[in-house]
Each structure stands twice: as C-alpha cells, then as structure tokens.
Amino acid sequence: MHYLKQFAVIIAISAISELLAIFIPLPIPASIYGMSLLFLLLMTGVLKLQQVENAANLLLGIMPALFVVSGAGLITSYGQIAEHFFGWVAVNIGSTIVILATTGLLAQVMIRRKKAKEADGND
C-alpha cells in the first residue's frame, strides 16, 4: 500500500508540472518543472524523502527498460540520422564533457564548503 501512496505523490507532482508547463509561457519541458518542484519540496521539508523513496527506487531500477522504445526508434530512423551522424556524435561528446566538468567542479565546491564548515565548527 505504501507504494501506491508514493506513486500517487509522484503522479501528483507530475500533474502539477504539466499544468505549470501549460500556464507558464516558457519553452521548458514539464519534466524539468516536475524535477524542480520535487527538489524544492524535498529541500524545504514539505515532502519527506520517506514519502517517495521506495517508489523512486523502483522507477530507477526499471529505468533502462523505459529507454528501450527510444533506442528502437533511433535504430529505425538511422537513415534520417546518418547524414548528420558526426554532428550528433560531436554534440553528444561535447555535452558529456561539459556535464562531467560542471559536475566535478560543483562537487569540489560543495566538498570544500563542507570541510570549511567542519573546520569552523571545530575551532
């Protein structure tokens, strides 16, 4: 029964994000609104991690299966993609490098802040 409640919370957040995407005239996908809303609710404590953790872990566990249809669609569209194949590869490699660098730098900043707080607290 707890899975049903947790999925209901996730679906409610998803529905609200769809409404936000409709009513806010920005070119932002509803999924971004949903993730931002979920993050905000978790960080403010309005929503506790225990209220969605099991359902989220289940969704993360089956995530590879959710991409099978997308992968099959890419395979069937190869003829259309082939003429711009190297452009696609360059964009994917470039964006991956940017994401890795950004994530690494952000992690370093957060670790340094944590160490600085711990050092200030020990004085």
UniProtKB/TrEMBL annotation:
Its main location: membrane. The keyword Transmembrane applies. It is found in: Cell membrane. This is Holin-like protein. Keywords: Cell membrane, Membrane, Transmembrane, Transmembrane helix. The chain crosses the membrane at residues 7-26, 32-49, 56-79, 85-107. It is a multi-pass membrane protein. The keyword Magnesium does not apply. It comes from Trichococcus flocculiformis. It comes from the Bacteria. One of its GO terms (cellular component) is plasma membrane.
